[in-house]
Amino acid sequence: MKRLRWAALSVAGMIGLLGGCGSKSGTSAFNPTPIITNLFPSNITAGSQNFTLFIKGTGFISTGQGVSFGYWNGAARSSTYNAGTGELMVLIPASDVVNPGLVQVTVFNPAPGGGTSGAISFNIEALQPGAPAIGSFSPPSATAGGPNFTLTVNGSNFAANDVVTWNGSERTTTYLTANQVTAAITSQDILTAGFGSVSVSTPGLVVASPSLTYPVNGPNNPAPSIGSLSPASVPAGGTDLEVAVSGSGFVDGSVAEWNGNPLATAYVSGSRLMVLIPTANMVSAATPSITVTNPAPGGGTSAGVTFTVQ
After folding, report:
1. Which of 95, 119, 210, 298 could be a cystine partner for 47, CB 3.0 to 4.6 Å?
2. Which residues pair with residue 258 across a beta bridge?
3. Measured between alpha carbons, how far is 150 from 131 in angstroms, rounded to an integer?
């Protein structure tokens, strides 16, 4: 499980990066065009909290030539590529699922090559009368790397055949009362710090309860520090741009900011992040301050580094 941060941006374009990935002749290899084959989950109930969307497909990247970003109705969202599973994990904020409707999900890879995948629809379902609702959890959080445990879910409208899901996957569920069920959460579910998205569904209903986030706590995060940006300046009037942020103390969950406003951020390593600067930020000359914030526990915000729009 990964922890991500988010920001709404526009449609992506150019790239300026650190690092290699060149061909044997010394020229850069072309990035593939991504292809989406499946979304998991493929729907969620309106009013849910932020959740991780797992995108399956081919051609996703995290290299010296850039990273893949997921897009939600044309707006970039913070994304992390899992090389082990081949999935792109995209954090969707609660503000994206307030109202029912269909959303178009795409994946973008930067130049050279690259491009935007075909779109797949994601359904935000309306909350049905009588659907289950979650109020609280016990215990209220778990520790990363801990053992299997029983999660008690408190709420309302629970039925005897209800099922608890964790990040969209069903977990063994025990019905106690109309206001309480328990679920068997595995050690794999809480392997790393972040959060799980928990919901309760009743067979026969089209949708589940709005999902709530369940915290998985880790050790204190370090304070981040920025060393450099690449590129550090661009001409005004450009399209969306991937920028490499080099430094130290970055964690999975670090978010870069433009004058304090969050940018879609991809964690690459403890010394490198990739961020998307939207077209709207580069319309005219400016000298914004770029910072990085690490979440609690610990964490904090780095000193600012100037990015120049000429």
Report:
1. 210
2. 261, 290
3. 23
pTM score, two decimals?
0.84
Q: What is the pLDDT of residues 248-267, one digit of tens each?
A: 999 999 999 999 999 999 99
Contact 117, 36 (CB under 8 A): yes
Tokens matching residue 120:
């797949």
The amino acid at 169: S
Query: What CATH number does the domain containing 103 carry?
Result: 2.60.40.10
For residue 87, give its domain range. 12-125
Is residue 262 domain-resident?
Answer: yes
Question: What's the pLDDT tens digit per position in 216-249?
Answer: 999 999 999 999 999 999 999 988 899 999 999 9
Is the sign of the CA dihedral 78, 272, 242, 83 positive or negative?
negative
Same domain, residue pair 189 and 268: no
Q: Are 259 and 307 in contact (CB under 8 A)?
A: no
Cα distance between residue 208 and residue 163, in whole Å: 9
CA–CA distance from 204 to each of 5, 140, 154, 163, 227 (Å)? 34, 29, 21, 12, 55
Tokens read off for 305:
């580094």
